[in-house]
Amino acid sequence: MGTSRADGHREPDDRLGGVLSATLITCHSILELNARHPEAQRALLDAQVMHRLVMKGFPGWVEDGARDARAQMGVLHTSNVDLKNQRLTVVVQSSVPPDWSHLGKNQLAAEPQIMKVDQSVAIGQRFRFHTVVNPARMSSRHLPRSEREKPQPERKRLSDTTAEHARQWFAERLQPLGEAAISERGVRRIGADADPTRLVVRILPKLSNLDKKPGMRVGRAQVRGELTITDPHVFVNTIVGGLGHAKAYGCGLILVKRID
């Protein structure tokens, strides 16, 4: 059987001429925080504060101030708040082990859980999945200009705000068996297929960065459903690297569970 690893190495199957399996290796942390704690409250109000809270769990792995520190360490996160019980749950994925000792006991509602993920992924396997994405699309418009100037298109990323648009955004990234990893429109696919009509989509509140970018709003959509693996190598790379934009702000992490 052909195999592939998360580091990008692939071993083709000479008989079938394709990559039939891959290995997903990563680390998951589950943080249960007291939503009444000031730091948790700040994180709920400001996406940049949440980003800093997550990144504090990985001291020393890269040089201080590195612009791509999150990507180098494979850090992705997603969060959910239970306002009734005042609990903020943050799930963090990383390619290096975290250190959550900086979180004080008054910040935590439970001890952090850290789990190593080492799983083989093969064509035809089925997974339940849950993800929060930024279903952004690019739009062009013409800036004001003098009569002598030619129109100069401005590229601006817009977040779709309806469940149907988010469903279409995700469906465009599905990869039917035998299809290329990049579509004719240049969209990167995820190495798995699904029935778009069976996806459960929910629009979430937009995130803000109140300190540095008061006008910033990050649109989010929660997508749940079942996937069938069609390209294990692409699928593993998608899980490790995340899906779409706004990854520093809690989008792009895909959580999966094998359907036996």
Question: What does this 3D model show about the protein?
Answer:
- InterPro entries: CRISPR-assoc_prot_Cse3.
- Pfam families: CRISPR_assoc (PF08798).
- Residues 144-162 have a biased composition (Basic and acidic residues).
- With 260 residues, this protein is of the alpha+beta class.
- It folds into two domains: 26-118, Alpha-Beta Plaits (2-Layer Sandwich), CATH 3.30.70.1200; 123-139 and 153-258, Alpha-Beta Plaits, CATH 3.30.70.
- It contains five helices and 13 strands.
- The strands form four sheets. Strands 7, 10, 11, 12 and 13 form a five-stranded antiparallel beta sheet that branches.
- Helix 1 packs across helix 2.
- It is globular and about 50 Å long.
Identify the notable features of this structure and list them briefly:
single chain; 260 residues; alpha+beta; Alpha-Beta Plaits; five-stranded antiparallel beta sheet; globular; disordered N terminus; CRISPR-assoc_prot_Cse3; Type I-E CRISPR-associated protein Cas6/Cse3/CasE
Q: In terms of topology, how is this protein built?
A:
Blueprint: E1 3-4, E2 10-11, E3 21-34, H1 38-45, H2 47-55, H3 69-72, E4 76-82, E5 87-94, E6 113-122, E7 126-133, E8 136-142, E9 153-159, H4 163-171, E10 192-193, E11 200-209, E12 213-229, H5 232-241, E13 254-258
Antiparallel strand pairs: 1-2, 3-5, 3-6, 4-5, 7-12, 7-13, 8-9, 10-12, 11-12
Helix pairs in contact: 1-2
